[in-house]
Amino acid sequence: MSRSFILPLGIALLVLACGSASGTGGDHMAEEASPGKAVFNMNCTLCHGRDGKAGLNGAKDLTVSTLTTEEMKAIVRNGKGAMAPYKQVLSAQEIEAVVTYIRTLGGAK
Ligand code: HEC
């Protein structure tokens, strides 16, 4: 059995568990209003984790990213390496929102 399949599943379950429990993250309150958060939690947590740091399947830690907002949007639109392109999946507004949300996770310059 390959572990790379089990790990994302574990994280997905963890994310679900956190959503229904009281929430151990502590810092989500301020982000609750962000429209990008829902997009992120639906599409990105499998590899990047709820806090952007998980780095599963070779994903980058988003909180330490040195990319500009424009560069991030380009990667979300067009994909990179193991990350699939999202331009067919998300609208321009959703990509805008999710990148804005990522930037609140830590690495904002
Ligand atoms: C299948 C796993 C996977 C999913 C799902 C995924 N990513 Fe990624 N992401 C990656 C990988 C792998 C990289 C590193 C690509 C590389 O540099 O080769 C990456 C890189 C990035 C980067 C660039 C970070 C940097 O500093 O170089 C951004 C921004 C990003 N992802 C945002 C997102 C967003 C937003 C979503 C959801 C819409 C998402 N990702 C969903 C795997 C994923």
How would you portray this structure in words?
By secondary structure, the chain is mainly α. The chain has one domain (3-104): Cytochrome c-like domain (Cytochrome Bc1 Complex, Chain D, domain 2, Orthogonal Bundle), CATH 1.10.760. Helices cover 50% and strands 0% of the residues. It contains five helices and no strands. The protein has helices at 3-20, 35-43, 45-48, 69-78, 92-104. The structure holds heme C. Residues 43-44, 46-48, 57-60, 62, 65, 67, 72, 75-76, 80-83, 86, 98, 102 line the site of heme C (HEC). Heme C (HEC) binds at residues 43-44, 46-48, 57-60, 62, 65, 67, 72, 75-76, 80-83, 86, 98, 102.
What key phrases describe this protein's structure?
Cytochrome Bc1 Complex, Chain D, domain 2; mainly alpha; binds heme C; 109 residues; 5 helices; globular
* Helical content (DSSP H or I, runs of 4+): 40-55%
Q: Which molecules are bound besides the chains? A: heme C
> What is the radius of gyration?
14 Å
User: What fraction of the residues are assigned to beta strands by DSSP?
Assistant: under 5%
Q: From the 3D structure, determine the CATH topology.
A: Cytochrome Bc1 Complex, Chain D, domain 2
CATH architecture: Orthogonal Bundle
| Biggest beta sheet summary | none
**pLDDT < 50 runs, ≥5 residues:** 20-26
Helix count equals 5
- The residue-averaged pLDDT reads 81
Order of helices and strands: HHHHH
